[in-house]
Write a structure and sequence with these properties.
By secondary structure, the chain is mainly alpha-helical. Helix content is 47%, strand content 6%. The protein folds into three domains: 136 residues, no CATH class; 85 residues, no CATH class; 240 residues, no CATH class. It has a four-stranded mixed β-sheet, with helices on both faces. Helix 16 links the parallel strand 3 and strand 4. Helix 2 packs antiparallel against helix 3, helix 2 runs parallel beside helix 5 and helix 15 packs parallel to helix 17. The C terminus is likely disordered. The structure holds zinc ion. The site of zinc ion (ZN) has 8 residues, from loops.
């Protein structure tokens, strides 16, 4: 270790590195060479324990934030050809932990599970689960500027070789990785010299499964983008394509990162199970063959195995319940935001407000109204609507995201014309389909976010903003998934949730801010 430190100027991180025979001498029995075999037993042990956890949400979080990212250190430091067997075994072991608790493959489900596996290893913003595929990571050049700062002549030599005659195997591997990225259609790749001079990478939103910030993130995204567009999407049915687009939207994934610290952020194992299966487009647990069989409400039509019919059927009576669950989550978020200066009134009759030109017998009711959130004093009149046609693609929804959300907004604007003509109120249409949220949801949340952040002490404001955003998107997307999972089975099984508390201590929220990156805890 001392030699490494003197020779390479690199200090060993003893939290992440296990040292055998620190005093020198032969390797201990069973350790023939360093490599993936040293890590596999510890990994396999963790993965096996995860499969036995009774709570699916906790097992998922430990898998996505602790177990899956453990491969990254090796992937960045070992030649891709050498690490490939380990990477494949790692991916297979991770997938095994997803597949097992979901019940495994049924007969004739092979193709569905192949597609599900492909989706699981996509980043959440691509509609996936955010498990980083070890096999698809390429070693990359974020190390060059660091090297150049310490050993400029070594870095210059590397760049020179990369751009010319390749002799060393590691540089040949780096050049091959760059070539593959070019094949995947990544045109914005900087040349090696620019990398070494520290060319900054364009910012991308941090998200699960993309590895380190910097160029590595872009290098991971490029082949994944190509895979999703050229390989995966063309093989999917229109309904599956629409679902993938819908669940790719901003913050659509937040239920996958929600920490179950209170009721509002918790998904019970059965609902988590259905939510995961729906996101992977796998058949759901058994339900009646006909909509409305055995004396229940329904239209009598034949039901599909993916929950699409139940999510869209207006005769089933589940749509208003679904809407109510999401509306309550919005009310909770608004209350946590405006407390104590403002006021949130749920189920506000329009005729009880001073909205202009509303008749006394008007039967329209807003989901909730928020007073005191805007610096300009406007009241925010909110209508939260999870869309009804979630499973059956709205025209164009299989080709691009957000089509159904735009349509929902147009319908609401037509319903409340008197709230859209300016004045001291503003109509906010909070539309969500099975996964995604419309632009107004994003804007509304940003308005709310200003309120508690301003109340926090100045040095804590950045963390408070991060923590509140994570908290509220978790609450909202857990509520949406809960409502969708419940109605997808055609039987409403959700117990009533306890009333929302008005305030959350800042300390709890700051915890969330620091928990938004993968665990950096030492292995042992
Ligand atoms: Zn029906």
């Amino acid at each position: 270790m001392g030699e490494v430190e003197r020779g390479a100027g690199v200090e060993a991180n003893l939290g992440k590195t296990r040292v055998y025979n620190a005093a020198g001498g032969d390797a201990p029995p069973g350790i023939a060479a360093l490599g993936p075999d040293v890590r596999r037993p510890a990994e396999a042990d963790l993965l096996q324990k995860l499969q036995r956890l009774p709570d699916l949400q906790s097992a998922w979080l430990l898998l996505a934030y602790c177990a899956a990212p453990r491969a990254q250190h090796l992937l960045r430091n070992v030649l891709s050809a050498d690490i490939l067997p380990y990477a494949r075994a790692h991916d297979a072991a991770i997938w095994n932990v997803v597949e097992g608790p979901l019940g495994g493959q049924g007969p004739d489900e092979g193709d569905a599970w192949l597609a599900a596996r492909a989706v699981a290893f996509l980043p959440p913003s691509f509609g996936g689960l955010g498990l980083l595929s070890a096999e698809r990571v390429f070693a990359w050049a974020d190390a060059l500027p660091v090297l150049r700062a310490r050993y400029p002549e070594v870095a210059d030599g590397i760049v020179h070789e990369l751009e010319g005659e390749l002799a060393r195997p590691c540089l040949r591997a780096a050049a091959l990785a760059a070539h593959r990225l070019a094949e995947a259609g990544w045109e914005a790749r900087p040349d090696w010299d620019a990398c070494a001079r520290g060319a900054g990478s364009p910012a991308v939103d941090g998200e699960l499964g993309l590895g380190n910030p910097g160029w590595q993130r872009h290098a991971v995204l490029a082949p994944l983008t190509s895979f999703r567009e050229r390989v995966l999407l063309p093989t999917l049915t229109p309904a599956a394509r629409a679902l993938l687009h819908s669940q790719s939207g901003p913050h659509a994934r937040m239920w996958l990162a929600a920490i179950p610290s209170d009721v509002a952020s918790t998904l019970k194992p059965d609902l988590m199970h259905v939510a995961l299966r729906r996101r992977l487009r796998l058949p759901l647990p058994l339900t009646g063959r006909c909509c409305g069989a055995q004396g229940r409400h329904g239209c009598g039509a034949q039901v599909d195995a993916y929950g699409d019919h139940h999510l869209a059927c207006p005769r089933k009576g589940l749509l208003p319940r679904r809407g109510f669950v999401v509306e309550r989550a919005w009310v909770q978020v608004a209350r946590e935001a405006v407390s104590p200066e403002g006021r949130v009134v749920p189920q506000q009759w329009l005729e009880h407000t001073t909205a202009p030109q509303v008749r006394a017998d008007d039967r329209r009711r807003l989901d909730f109204v928020v007073y005191g959130a805007m610096t300009t004093g406007e009241a925010l009149c909110c209508d939260a609507t999870p869309l009804t046609r979630a499973g059956r693609p709205v025209h164009g929804a299989d080709a691009r995201a957000g089509v159904a959300l735009d349509a929902a907004r147009r319908r609401k604007v037509a319903r409340y014309p008197e709230l859209t003509r300016g004045g001291p109120q503003r109509l906010v249409v909070l539309a969500a389909d099975v996964g995604g949220w419309n632009d107004q949801c994003q804007q509304f949340l940003r308005i709310l976010l200003r309120l508690p952040v301003q109340r926090a002490p100045p040095p804590l404001r950045a963390s408070a903003a991060q923590g509140w955003a994570r908290r509220w998107w978790s609450v909202l997307s857990v509520a949406l998934q809960r409502a969708v999972a419940c109605s997808a089975l055609g039987v409403w099984s959700m117990p009533p949730l306890p009333g929302a508390q008005d305030a959350l201590p800042l300390g709890d929220v700051l915890d969330l801010a620091s928990a938004s990156a993968p665990s950096r805890l030492p292995l042992h």
